[in-house]
Amino acid sequence: MTDSSTTEAAVVLTSRIPLPDSERCALLITLNRPHKKNCFNTEVCHKLAQIFHNVAEEVQGYDSNCNNDDDGSNNNEEGQLLAAVILTGAGKSFCAGADLSAPPNPLHQSSDLPHHLQWNPVHQMSRVGIPIIGVVRGHVITGGFELALACDILIGSHTTTFRDTHVKFGLAPCWGLSQKLTQRIGPGRAKIVSFSARPLRAERAYEWGLLDELIDETNNSSDDDDDDVVLKRAIELSANIASNDPLMVRRYKRAMVEGTSMTLQNGLQRERELGISHYLEIVGDGATFETAKDFISDDKRPRAQSKL
Question: Distance between the two ends of the chain, CA-based, in angstroms?
Fold first, then answer.
């Protein structure tokens, strides 16, 4: 199902994808300027920010009504609870950075003033309480690189190429690339990527931990099939996520995200605080542990084959 933004001329498309064996769905967000390699202008930034703002608000509503979370009831017009978000680009590229013919205002995008953060897509992505999966193919350059790093999980193909050209053109990162890339691949490798401004191919990106999964599409017969197999894997992963306890997925993401901004000791303490809060809420009814025991003791349940 699609929302009102999915018109032919829309620069960003959205659709809700029902997930198998679940009442939940994934929200597919597609940058839709393939003729520009999905470079973003002010309109794209504002549209992305609005979409992610709406997702963040919807997901926060799940936590406010967690007692109704498992019965599929909610107030969103699609009638399906979100398990994950998938961000991708139309055509052969994820995003080749800013459209220099109409770039977003860098002072506004660097600002932490509330009326500027409202239209900052990466800030709004950081507010989303469910996993964001980036399907990145082709060019992932500079600002597009920063959009990718705002995702929780990155899945690519052998066409994927990352490049940070900030230093090449005397530009400053304002969506977190200088910090997030170091967290993902380490300071030395991050400096190689950013200071050289040279392309980082998919195989090396996967080896260094920038890509979380590298999909082998060599057996497919066309580029369109290549696109489908990477997106198919993202949908499959979304379904895996949807099969688990939704409240705990959101709380686990919160612990992980908050922990990365702290020292190890503070992060461990924060994890304990979140754990205590969670168990104080659920331990009284005993249902969670009984469900886990029933699952473990069920000899007839199907054994899923791991894809990790």
Answer: 30
Tokens coding 3: 């929302």
For the chain, the 3-state helix, strand and coil shares in percent, each to the nearest 5, are 45, 15, 35
Q: CA-to-CA distance for 173 and 142, rounded, in angstroms?
A: 8
Cα distances (angstroms) measured from residue 234 to each of 133, 162, 209, 237 = 7, 19, 17, 5
Residue 87 pairs in a beta bridge with 29, 134
Q: How far is Cα 201 from Cα 163, in angstroms, rounded to an integer?
A: 9
Structure tokens at 270: 């924060």
The pLDDT of residue 103:
85
**Residue 14: beta bridge partners?**
29
Give the span between the Cα atoms of 152 and 128, in whole angstroms: 10
Q: What is the DSSP letter of 35?
A: G
* Two structure tokens written together for 173: 């990162």
- Cα Rg of the chain (Å, integer): 20
Whether 217 and 226 have beta carbons less than 8 Å apart is answered as yes
- What residue type is 44 in one-letter code? V
Question: How far is 306 from 308, CA to CA, in rounded Å?
Answer: 6
The DSSP bridge partners found for residue 29 are 14, 87
Q: Which amino acid is at 241?
A: I
Whole-angstrom CA distances from 270 to 60, 251, 261, 277, 278 are: 20, 11, 11, 11, 12
Q: Which of the pair, 180 or 220, is modelled with greater confidence?
A: 180
Cα distances (Å, whole numbers) of residue 12 to 49, 178, 195:
11, 26, 31
CA 8 to chain centre: 24
What pTM did the predictor assign?
0.84
Per-residue tokens: 308: 């990790």
Q: So what's the pLDDT on residue 260?
A: 82
The label of the residue with tokens 């696109």 reads 227
